[in-house]
Amino acid sequence: MRIVVLGVGYLGATHAACMAKLGHQVLGVDTDESKLAQLSSGVVPFYEPHLNELTAEMVAAGNLRFTSSYLEAADFGDVYFIAVGTPQKKGEYAADVSALDSLIDTLAPLLTKPAIIFGKSTVPVGTAARLRERARRLAPAGTGVELAWNPEFLREGHAIDDTLRPDRLVLGVVEASDKAVDAARQVYGSILESGVPFIITDLATAELVKVSANAFLATKISFINAIAEVCDASGGDVVQLADAIGYDSRIGRAFLNAGLGFGGGCLPKDIRAFMARAGELGADQALTFLREVDAINMRRRSQMVELARDACGSLLGARVGVLGAAFKPDSDDVRDSPALNVAGQLQLQGAAVTVYDPKAVENSRRLFPTLAYADSVEAACSKADVVLLLTEWDEFKELDPHKLGRVVSRRLLLDGRNCVDPSVWRQAGWTYKSFGRV
Ligand code: UDX
User: Fold this and answer.
1) How does strand 25-29 pair with strand 115-119?
2) How much is the pTM?
3) Class of domain 2-196
4) Which CATH class, in words, describes the domain spanning 236-438?
5) Best CA proximity match to 338, nearest among 388, 375, 402
6) Distance 347 CA to ligand 1 centre (A)
């Protein structure tokens, strides 16, 4: 099929390359010319495992192209995927969907032939119906234009796999929109043939599936972090506890890693936008628990700063080595990163902080230019009074505590992700502290 992907940020660039991999002809559209130039030469402007290789391969094969021209896109496409961002509004909880509106306003008047538009962005419930009406009103092709919602569930660091081998495909359509269902079956043909569940819903349900999934994941993380606080108060071990409750198949072990909590471009803003939308709909009481989920999560960051202060005596002049800046491993994304937030707070309180991350130093420097950055673990921890492990990269999990012990001034490790074996570090002479573990 001839597929247009509108917006080639994280979601769109991944989706475009994966659709090309499925054998479609794909055109990626964006307004950012420098991004388009990079992608056109097969270079992905962010870090995602294997995406560079896949993009370069698809560009070279002629299956994937990029443009800033909506005219070209409207001439090219049978199917359009919307993959633009819906960030949190400044000073509010609600999502800013203005990029979606202006996209429809630009694209729809150019649609002179029948087309299917699939929305992938995470949106407040009700957005799809509104955009569908708007697109059909503005398009010369009128009711020949169909709009359906096909939420994306990809995780950074696993984006290709999550797109090509998803747990499920969800498609929200207006009653009896066979056109959209048929088009989705063609787009995702080989994925569906492999037995991936295909759930067809109405528009509102599809929108809600996405935000509910993220709210549930956020709740799971904050649940275990709340239990970690009780473990700290009582002397329990939250890692063993998570293992033990995780064996219950009704609970499951995934997303029960206690630590510094969740960040990134999705979970924090999505739970806030979900609360805001529920409020607008008069169902605000239903989601007040998400306020607590958010509060537990944000508390982790200040608790980490407290842990560092207690461990050092005073933060004034303390030398702190921070390992990790990305919001999670296998990503260079520092949006709402708990690690970087803690590093910034420590510095504001008088500590001399040096940060190392395998992939996210460049992005961190842009966001927090006043922090010091190093290009290796050893350089970040040189003469450190305390080492904070804040993102669970494999490189950090595999650290040799004896070797690292030789460069620091005090063998003091605060493990913000419960990701190394305390007994190994203690045997190497380190004082080890973390959340929810004695
Ligand atoms: C999330 C959803 O998983 C994905 O389905 C959706 O499409 C987008 O949002 P992502 O933001 O890439 O994906 O990251 P995810 O793997 O969900 O992790 C989110 C945050 O939770 C990270 O900061 C991670 O460190 C933290 N986390 C995760 C925990 O603190 N504990 C856990 O047990 C799991």
Assistant:
1) unpaired
2) 0.96
3) alpha beta
4) alpha beta
5) 388
6) 26
